[in-house]
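Action item from last week, closing it out:
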Amino acid sequence: MNVGDTLPPLEIPVTRTLIVAGAIASRDYQDVHHDAELAREKGSPDVFMNILTTNGLVGRYVTDHLGPRAVLRKVAIRLGAPNYPGDTMTLTGTVTAVREAEVEIRVVGANGLGHHVTGTVTAELPAAYDPVDGTVTAEVPA
């Protein structure tokens, strides 16, 4: 893994179920995340995804690439265009730093309106112990 490497894109269909389930799972009971009529009364055309769901999807995107033993050390994101039902969010990532067993990835999630999320994820890669020579090296996916 080297600076400049890109992760394969991940397309996530933004469904009403995903939006509502993510809000409920994260205990975010704001009506704009589950009640279309109340969301419209507040100026939104429909319900929209909450930041906690987006944060989880960004984390999933990175760990899907780095493997289940990678540990997310920092996720710093900023929301932009809302994710509404019926759209698709495409996540992309670029490696911006590699330090020993740690990698930093710049993530962008775009939908039909623009960038829904931008940010960076810092992850620690799992260490591999070689019993033959006693060395520990980071497991870096190919």
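Closing note: The mean pLDDT is 90.
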